[in-house]
From TrEMBL:
Keywords: Aminotransferase, Pyridoxal phosphate, Transferase. It comes from Massilia phyllostachyos. Gene3D superfamilies: Aspartate Aminotransferase, domain 1, Type I PLP-dependent aspartate aminotransferase-like (Major domain). Pfam families: Aminotran_1_2 (PF00155). This is Aminotransferase class I/II-fold pyridoxal phosphate-dependent enzyme. InterPro entries: Aminotransferase_I/II_large (IPR004839), AON_synthase_class-II (IPR050087), PyrdxlP-dep_Trfase (IPR015424), PyrdxlP-dep_Trfase_major (IPR015421), PyrdxlP-dep_Trfase_small (IPR015422). Its cofactor is pyridoxal 5'-phosphate. One of its GO terms (molecular function) is transaminase activity. The keyword Thylakoid does not apply. SUPFAM superfamilies: PLP-dependent transferases. Signal peptide: none annotated.
């Protein structure tokens, strides 16, 4: 069978793995295949996938058996299903297993059924989505909240609904694909600023305003960058936006609920709650559900989003079960229990970083639910991910397009319910895998989209 995995003996087979070609290449090579036949021209990509799969270094499309949790059963990497320590799921406060959240979801299912049965503008809303808009607005101190079926849709929808061709977008060079793709779809005037660099933002704003006083300018950043575990200076960015008549949009997908006083994320931690022009986010990391939102204080923006954000207008609304789940999570996030869960999460985070540092590892960013463990080359990242999966430690090896080429890393996402014993068991395994991966010979030349 073509995709059957080759049994891998880590003590002997690194040279053979490197020679196989499975460590070479990157997704960028396959992005725009040539030829007239749309149904066949991606064949080289499928061949590359099969090669990597055979050698156990294709870490995507794994399957979870049962619920996501600190210990999970995972099938993938060419291996049979195995139970192990899970740093690859997103459930920062472990709320997807919380009894009150499960009870709320089941009550909504019993009361309203499983389906919203319409877009938010065409009877897809329910009492539960209305309550969710209200509670989220309270947490963020924003008067208007618009819900979306996914976080991706909130980001893409907000940017494309608000920005048009004559406007400008300044976007952090490492911002999420949903924001970047939204910007590219909205206008050709898109400029990336150096990651977190407010001086660069100031320079670009001044340049645009020197030429054009009428165009709108949207400045886009994130509360917590999920591949780098770092955050911008929000007070300064908001000040610059005011000074140059621009609008600031902050995506808080990864920090809202999981960080900051009362779960207000990096915005709250920086004293900016209620002071950011536009806040967007996703429920999928801390609030145990698919879904996303845009929050702001301008009623006209709300109206504009409702009518012109495609994923709001032309996609089915959040289901009652999803809305009830997020509502229950929000109540916990804002309660003393939420503080306890965030404190547990932060303890694991600090301990894991300290243990990895003692092992000589390089973790980037600052304490947050995310620990990016640097590997640099894609080859090292693939090997380390594969070795860890064989020891039942599940992490997400991140390479292009999730991160820039040559900046690969293992991304570990922590949960409040990870235990200190799991953290202590995982740290030396993580370090050993990264060290071993660093000893691999240079990979054979990459295959390419042209075969
Ligand atoms: C910053 C950011 N925005 C938006 C999204 C999309 O959210 P979702 O996966 O819930 O659609 C993500 C998720 O990866 C993200 O990291």
């Amino acid at each position: 069978m073509q995709n059957e995995a080759i049994p891998f003996d880590p003590s002997q087979d690194l040279p053979a793995l490197a020679a196989s070609g499975a460590l070479g290449g990157n997704v960028a090579l396959f992005r725009q295949p040539r030829g007239p036949d749309l149904m066949r021209r991606a064949q080289p990509l499928d061949d590359w996938y099969a090669l990597r799969m055979r050698h156990g270094v294709w870490p995507y499309n794994r399957r979870l058996e049962g619920a996501p949790g600190p210990l999970s059963t995972v099938e993938g990497d060419g291996l049979p299903a195995a139970r192990g320590i899970n740093f690859a799921s997103q459930d920062y406060l472990s709320l997807s297993a919380h009894p009150a959240v499960l009870a709320a979801a089941m009550a909504a299912l019993a009361e309203c059924g499983p389906h919203s049965a319409g877009s938010a503008v065409l009877l897809g809303n329910s009492r539960l989505t209305g309550a969710l808009e209200g509670l989220l607005g309270e947490l963020l101190q924003c008067r208007h909240v618009v819900l979306f079926p996914t976080g991706w849709g909130a980001a893409f929808g907000a940017v494309t609904a608000l920005v048009h061709g004559a406007d400008h977008v300044l976007i952090d060079g490492l911002a999420h694909a949903s924001l970047r793709q939204g910007a590219m779809a909205a206008t050709r005037n898109v400029t990336s600023f150096r990651h977190l660099d407010c001086d660069h933002v100031r320079e670009l704003l001044a340049g645009i305003r020197a030429m054009d006083s009428q165009a709108a300018i949207l400045v886009i950043t994130e509360g917590l960058f999920s591949m780098d575990a770092d955050s911008p200076d929000l007070p300064l960015l908001q000040y610059l936006c005011r000074e140059y008549g621009a609008t600031l949009l902050v995506d808080v997908a990864h920090d809202l609920g999981a960080m900051g006083p009362g779960g207000t994320g990096v915005i709250g931690a920086q004293g900016m709650i209620g002071k950011i022009d536009m806040v967007i986010g996703a429920f999928s990391k801390t609030f145990a559900s698919n879904g996303g939102f845009v929050a702001c204080d301008a009623p006209s923006v709300r109206r504009q989003l409702q009518l012109f954000a495609g994923p709001h207008m032309f996609s089915n609304a959040l289901s009652p079960v999803q809305a009830a789940t997020v509502l229950a999570c929000l109540r916990i996030v804002a309660s003393p229990e939420g503080e306890t869960l965030r404190a547990a999460l932060m303890r694991h985070e600090v301990e894991l970083r300290a243990l990895l540092k003692d092992e000589g590892m390089r973790c980037i960013g600052a304490p947050s639910p995310i620990v990016p463990l640097w590997t640099g080359t894609e080859a090292a990242c693939r090997i380390a991910g594969m070795l860890l999966a064989r020891q039942q430690v599940f992490v997400n090896p991140m390479e292009f397009p999730g991160v820039p080429l040559g900046a690969a890393r293992l991304r570990l996402q922590l949960m409040a319910q990870h235990t200190p014993a799991q953290i202590r068991r995982a740290a030396p395994l993580l370090a050993a895998a990264v060290r071993k991966a660093g000893t691999a010979p240079r990979p054979a030349l990459a295959p390419s989209a042209q075969g």
